[in-house]
Design goal:
The complex is a heterodimer of chains A (about 170) and B (about 110). Chain A has about 170 residues and is mostly helical. Chain A has helices at about 5-30, 30-50, 55-80, 95-115, 130-140, 145-165. Chain A has 2 domains: about 1-110, NADH-ubiquinone/plastoquinone oxidoreductase chain 6, subunit NuoJ (Four Helix Bundle (Hemerythrin (Met), subunit A), Up-down Bundle); about 125-165. Chain B has helices at about 5-25, 30-55, 65-95. The chains are: A mainly alpha (about 170), B mainly alpha (about 110).
């Protein structure tokens, strides 16, 4: 193992540890506002993972949409429904122990399965900027799903407005 | 970077993130915290999609299906969050609660 491999793997483990810590905080934090802030940390960690996978456009989209839109939306919703979940209240329902058991088993099963499969060792090198060809494919190969998703977003906008209106 | 980190690492990270998210979605009492758990699960799936694109595509420039799929998942996550939070706020207005154990009007 040469030095660059060790540095790359250390970097990955650092980012992964940060992401998982933030995810645990999101799920375990008693205060929902703190959970939302930890969720922002998780989104940043996932964006860093995208950068490591050489998907720069997706990393930017992750920060713009998830942190810029979804996290802010969640923070607003937490502030609009505040004062209901008191700090002394239990934040988990009565079945949390069973859920933890099932989820832990699920993780163990997936982990063992992942280790057993002979995955591809390395991807082909990216020779040029991926963003121009991504835009081209969105306008040619994936034009129909692209348009359907934009109609869906419009429907969501109207629906959210109607539902949340007094 | 891509030759030095095996695909297994990304898959294990995504599996862990998915399990943490599903724990949150199934065990929290606050409806907004349940939504946060679902967002974590969607992120884990996206990591898998991008990792398989990067390691699996013969030419990552030509075949960008993984990236496109991840983009659509992000869009749907945004739509889901907007509708979900609108529902939560509407329920909060009429029932004064965001506790999923007390929202049981449609429960048989």
């Amino acid at each position: 193992m040469d030095v660059s491999t060790i540095i790359a793997q250390l970097l990955f483990f650092l980012v992964a540890a940060l992401t998982l810590t933030a995810a645990f905080l999101t799920v375990l934090a008693r205060n929902v506002f703190h959970a939302a802030l930890a969720l922002v940390g998780t989104f940043f960690g996932v964006a860093a993972i995208y950068l490591m996978l050489e998907a720069e456009f997706l990393a930017i989209v992750q920060i713009l949409i998830y942190i810029g839109a979804i996290a802010v939306l969640i923070l607003f919703a937490v502030m609009l429904t505040r004062g209901l979940m008191q700090h002394d209240q239990i934040s988990f329902n009565h079945q949390w122990a069973w859920v933890a058991l099932v989820v832990g088993t699920l993780f163990l099963g997936m982990f063992i399965l992942i280790l057993q499969v002979p995955w591809l060792q390395s991807g082909a090198a990216v020779t040029a900027d991926t963003v121009p060809s991504l835009g081209q494919q969105l306008m040619t190969t994936y034009l129909l799903p692209f348009e359907v998703v934009s109609v869906l977003l419009l429907a969501t906008l109207v629906g959210a407005f109607i539902i949340a209106r007094e | 970077m891509i030759t030095q980190i095996p695909l297994v690492y990304y898959l294990a990270l995504a599996a862990a993130l998915f399990c943490i998210g599903s724990f949150g979605a199934l065990s929290r009492r606050n409806a907004i915290a349940v939504l946060m758990g679902i967002e974590l699960m969607l992120n884990a799936v996206n990591i898998n999609l991008v990792a398989f694109w990067r390691y699996g595509a013969a030419d990552p420039l030509v075949d960008q299906a993984g990236i496109v799929f991840a983009l659509f998942v992000i869009t749907l996550a945004a739509a889901e969050a907007a509708i979900g939070l609108a529902l939560i706020i509407a329920i909060y207005r009429s029932r004064d609660t965001v506790n999923v154990e007390e929202i049981n009007l449609l429960k048989w």
